[in-house]
Amino acid sequence: MNTPTRTASLLATAVLLAACGGERSDPQTAAPAIESTGPVTAEVAPADAFLARIAQHCGQAFAGRIAANEPQAENDPFAGKPLVMHVRECSEREIKIPFHVGDDHSRTWVLTRTDTGLRLKHDHRHEDGSEDAVTLYGGDTAEPGTEVRQEFPVDEYSRQMFEREGLSVSVTNTWAMEIRPGEQFVYELYRPGRIFRVEFDLTTPVPTPPTPWGHPEIE
Asked: How far from the centroid of its chain's Cα atoms is residue 150's Cα?
């Protein structure tokens, strides 16, 4: 599905679900139509509007810069590296965004629509495609959020993984994303004593990066 069609599908689905509550009417029992007395505006859930905003850039890649990184690790893997996000795969309920750090193509953000909001997972792979010991961590939204910003508190699966892998400092993580189409996309991690924020310039697409490790080629 090409980008305009995919984006239109996401927007149409969000509006239709909001307008009819996801239920179908039986034409034999439906009440008579009421004559409209003015424009009708369907309320789109913030989660759907957020996904649709990102989907407007499906297929495009953008350069980013570190806006905050406190405290910075001694051997910080992001320092001095080109940072590129690629809105690579979009469907009505899921968007995959690889995050390339120099020649490291191990990271992919996976945004999924759930029954109650959105889920963010971090898919980490090795160069041979195998899963990293620390992968698929993240969390679900606890609040509706807005069409601009969504926050993802760490979930229990991730807490247990962090404890098991000696990363107990991460058990209080919250991740966030922001999207202003045609302007800026933000990825953020914060917890007490730690803030990491990358801002991507959506005004100027950059060349498509390589296929992320462990993911299929896209024709």
From this structure: 9
| Residue 202 confidence (pLDDT) above 70 | yes
Distances in Å between the alpha carbon of 207 and those of 21, 85, 97, 182, 213?
40, 11, 15, 17, 18
Kindly list the structural domains of the chain, giving each domain's residue range(s) and its CATH number in brackets, ordered by start.
48-201 (2.40.128)
Residues 100-117 have a mean pLDDT of 98
- Please state, in angstroms and rounded to a whole number, the distance separating the CA atoms of residues 43 and 74: 47
* Token pair belonging to 60: 């495009």
C-alpha distance from residue 136 to each of 36, 121, 131 (Å): 48, 5, 9
Residue 38, class by beta-carbon neighbours within 10 Å (0-12 exposed, 13-18 middle, 19+ buried)? exposed
Rounded Cα gap, residues 161 and 37, in angstroms: 56
**Structure tokens, 70:** 């406190």
For 53-82, how does the pLDDT look when each residue is reduced to its tens digit (9 = 90+)? 999 999 999 999 999 999 998 889 999 999
pTM listed for this prediction: 0.82
DSSP the chain: --HHHHHHHHHHHHHHHHHHTT----TTTPPPPPPP-S---PPPPHHHHHHHHHHTTTT-EEEEEEEEEESPPTT-TTTT--EEEE--EE-SSEEEEEEEETTEEEEEEEEEE-SSSEEEEEEEB-TTSPBPSS-SEEEE-SS---SSEEEEEPPHHHHHHHHHTT-GGGGG-EEEEEEETTTEEEEEEEETTEEEEEEEETTS-BPPPPPPTTS----
